[in-house]
Design brief:
CATH class: Alpha Beta
CATH architecture: 2-Layer Sandwich
Order of helices and strands: EHEEHEHHHHHHH
Oligomer: single chain
Distance between the termini: 28 Å
Strand content: 5-15%
Shape: globular
Number of helices: 9
Number of domains: 1
Low-confidence stretches: 5-9, 182-201, 216-228
Amino acid sequence: MCDRTVPSVTGTPRHVILRRNDGSPCFFSDEDYLVYLDCLKDAAERHNCAVHAYVLMPDHVQLLVSLDTEQRLSRVMRCVSGRYVEYVNYIYQRNGAFWEHGPRSTLIDSEQDLLATYLSIEATPVQACLAASPADYRWSSHGHHAGGSEDTVIRHHPLYLNLGATQRERQLAYHALFRQPLGNRAPAGIRPSTQIDSVLIGDRLTDRIERLVQKVRPVTMEHAFAAA
């Protein structure tokens, strides 16, 4: 596997949430999810946006992205949403407003919150009782980060790359984080500004993330969790 690092962008990673305007489903078939991912991949490449994590839920989309300006984020989301709505209107013979007035975006300004946001996004299907574990849900980046699948939408953030010297080591280390129990508090700065019922990260997992992000060099699974 190749290491797809962040492209030449600057700025702080952002947690983005987009919902239907009336709370209705966004996706109606497996093909719809695949089309959205194709639109996302194309828009990210066109507008120099790095997608680090995502989950496509039946009623909303969550993304973790890096790009240089809020204006660029608007262009990316317009590109993705516009193409996808054209597809939905054609396939399902509908018209009218589809998405909310715009995506909600939250800056992620610490490494601890960045890794916690990865976990929060990919654990959303479990919180929504759509899957027993993140690995059981098809429409997220979890299979790429913690399993053996390859996802061409994803561009690795350096923090994820530091989880191990190889992709397999990174997957093992990342998967180990999900073995921690979920608690009753969210990472700092995530829940109040997005106002979503995302998965909540417990104290034990937060402590483990804090220890992990303190390691500035690439680490193996054994090194990362020797003290856990």
